[in-house]
Amino acid sequence: MQLKTTIAAAAFLMLPAAAAAQAPPQPIPKVVADLRAFYSGLGQDARTAEELGVTPADLPSRGLGATGGVHFYPYRKNAFAIGIGGELMLARGRKTPTDPVTGEAIGPTVEQRLFSLSPQLSLNFGHRDGWSYLAAGMGPLAFETFKGDLPPAESPVKQATLNAGGGARWFASSHVAFCFDVRFYFTSPADTTPTHPGRNRNKLLFLSAGIAIR
Asked: Average pLDDT, whole number, for the chain?
């Protein structure tokens, strides 16, 4: 009798777990905020280097940076959602030519900086606890390259710049997820100004990873 009671109680306790296991995955949440860090490609533009009086190899080809954004999902359907939002991106790279033997500086420090603020549209595939996405956006991007420790007093011209890529988010807890993103920025040519060198058209790759909060 006692054995039958124990088995019945165990079966009763397992009912919620069985029901949860059979329940369909929940849709993607209504809103998510991202914060990611990256090690990005900045390029070594030959035109920029020539106008600065350095070689392309003297330009920092990589930089550190961060991006943050908020994304809303007004349309959610089972394992699919359409998202809208915006992202802010900052990147910076510095390089000082040095003597390979002594390690002493043999040229001026060259710095490259990027700033972008971009609306985003995304297609999302998955469920509440994990999904992948394809995203694209276009917004103002400022890209400047200069020699020395201080940037020019005049800010660089901001240009409407297309970006496109994709990524994924995996929630290991109720509110926090690991996320990564692969994104291309398609920069436009820039004319030479009295304070900033010109620039050719380029495609920059950004690989970032961080956390997402829902």
From this structure: 88
How far is it, in rounded angstroms, from Cα 185 to Cα 148?
Answer: 26
Coil, helix or strand at residue 51 = helix
Secondary structure of 129-160 as H, E, C letters: CEEEEEEEEEEEEEEEEEECCCCCCCCCCCEE
Ordered structural domains, the chain, with CATH: 28-213 (2.40.160.20)
Rounded to an integer, what distance in angstroms lies between the CA atom of residue 161 and that of residue 179?
24
pLDDT digits (tens, 9 = 90+) for 135-192: 999 999 999 999 988 889 899 999 999 999 999 999 988 899 999 999 999 999 999 9
**How many whole angstroms separate alpha carbon 142 and alpha carbon 115?**
5
3-state secondary structure of 1: coil
Predicted confidence (pLDDT) at residue 23 exceeds the cutoff of 60? no
Percent of the chain scoring above 90 in pLDDT: 75
Strand partners for 116:
89, 141
